[in-house]
Amino acid sequence: MEITLTTPALLFPAISLLLLAYTNRFMALANLIRSLKTRYASTQSRLVYGQIENLRIRLVLIRNMQAFGIASMFGCVFCMFILFAGYSTVGKYTFGLSLLLLMISLALALREIQISVKALELELDDLEETTAQ
Fold it and tell me: Which pLDDT belongs to residue 49?
């Protein structure tokens, strides 16, 4: 397979949008944590505490999603530099590593979404318990 200088550059828009989405998720989580902390301080609710614990796990995942996404972009830039220097074999491996880092970031994003759905299910369960009483 022949890899040119423009091949890694093709990932720039995708990775940039992905990092923007990750940052938006992080900001939404930060606001939610602040509001739940206030709510927990006044109610000492077990449900709210469970949500906070869930958010702690999600924060770690989002941090790692961002780290692997940034590492992927760094790898693409480094790959372009290596290809520019004329080392096509090393460039191929560097690009492959960048793709692997991007896949890890996406896998973490999938896991974070699964945990997010679990948190929403907790809220729905609580709503069902409240309406059943």
Answer: 80
